[in-house]
Amino acid sequence: MPTVDPGYRFAARVASLKSSAIREILQVVNRPDVISFAGGLPAPELFPTELLGALARDLLQSREAPQALQYGETEGIPALRSRILQRAPFPPGTFGEDGVLVTQGSQQGLDLAAKLFVDPGDEVLVETPAYVGALQALTFLGARPTFLPCDGEGVLPDALAAALRRRPKLLYLTPTFQNPSGVCYSARRRAEVREALAGSDTLLLEDDPYRELWYDTAPPPPVAEGLDPARFLYMGSFSKTAVPGLRVGFMLGAPALVRKCVMAKQAADLHTNSLGQHLLARLLAEPAFDDHVAGLRRAYRPRRDALDAALTARLGGQLSWARPGGGMFLWARLAGGGDAAELLRMALGEGLAFVPGGEFHAEGEGRDTLRLNFSHSNEAKLQEGVERLGRAMEKWRGA
Ligand code: PMP
């Protein structure tokens, strides 16, 4: 294995870089015999491939083709920005064209926000557990995350209010079908979070990529709705509803703050890829797109149910979990405690991958948790995967 040349004079922040365990697990799950509950991948057989193919052909034969292949504005192409504004889960008129920025996935929104706000050592508030990609973006810039306690309705308001009194720079929340916990904040809890934020100068980063993937009832409006528009940045994504490979997401916020994000994005990548933006603008203009999203809900709901039912039947007493109302993940806890990373080793031996929950927590916490993805496997694979998990648990308990 080549090692990094010790002669490199890295920036101090490089010391905080560590590879995500998820990426490492994903490298070993390419074996065809392995069932993966590990990644956060949408089902590729549900991609709107034919529609995108037809739109791409039309686009490249149209008068827009040169623009679609040319450099563009950092803010994003106007046609896509106006589609984003139409679809945004906020009352019409909340944001104008100057309140939206097209980003390279919502992950770039996290990176830009971190760059604009985090100085080394700054405190940022996150949920327990928290999305690993956000932790990576924030800690790379030197943020010190404080993990706030949460229950099945979201972050605990008293703990949030107490932490806000320290005036941390940022509060990062994924209130709708969180990755990894699946939790969707109740309307009441959203209101309590807004109340806690009133009068605070901590900026809310609301990350909302799973909003349209609901399986029981549509989620309440974003926490940011009704907040002072100067006090939040809202991030959305087309990775889960269209395709992640286009790498298109967006940020919504106050024009002055979006302007700063635009400048940070100029320095990062000039603009999001033009071809992907043009293609997505056309896709969003298709009436068939909403049918496609409804089709995703219809396809993922029975997968969620199949995983829930198989776990109940095979591992009822050994794991505890709450059935998620949307998103892509079921979050489970080992009923008798233990280390899910060790269980993963047994599971890989049985041909099943999942993500042990430790890395969504503060160092050393949450070892008894695991994240199971249900969007990428069909019902039969979900059942077989749970059977393998059951065998792995028998070995693990016996070990
Ligand atoms: N936020 C959350 C909570 C996510 O789960 C993901 C995808 N794993 C992202 C952001 C990034 O999504 P993308 O960059 O593909 O839009």
UniProtKB/TrEMBL annotation:
Pfam families: Aminotran_1_2
Alphabetized GO MF terms: pyridoxal phosphate binding; transaminase activity
Top-level taxon of the source organism: Bacteria
Every Aminotransferase class I/classII large domain range: 60-389
Cofactor(s) required for function per UniProt: pyridoxal 5'-phosphate
Family annotation (InterPro entries): Aminotransferase_I/II_large, Class-I_PLP-dep_aminotransf, PyrdxlP-dep_Trfase, PyrdxlP-dep_Trfase_major, PyrdxlP-dep_Trfase_small
Subunit structure: Homodimer.
The protein's name in its UniProt record: Aminotransferase
